[in-house]
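S.,

Sequence below, as promised.
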Amino acid sequence: MHKVKELKIWHKAMDIATELYDITKSFPKEEVYGITSQMKRAAVSIPSNIAEGAGRRSELEFRNFLNFSNGSSYELDTQLLLSARLGFTTEQTIEHLLKEIDELQKMNYALINKLGK
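The prediction came back faster than expected:
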């Protein structure tokens, strides 16, 4: 079992989710149950899966939840790019968040590899 609040990756994931919520405040109201909702679920899923995995008994289970978290990060990355294509936001607005997601994915792979040893 790992202390989730001591994990840098969990803190980064929490920051990503918070930033995503800020960005989607300006999205069209008719998208509240569409892409906005889907993006929020993906963003919340990232730190949630890290936390759930950290609370498991084995390294294998933790790695599995890190993989789920990583999948959600790729989902969010795609949804951010799609939202820019649809004109709900600009590439400049999401640029920082996309970089943060990329960094999180690298951290995730590194932690998975570390736990696998």
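The CA atoms of residues 39 and 78 lie 9 Å apart.

Coffee later?
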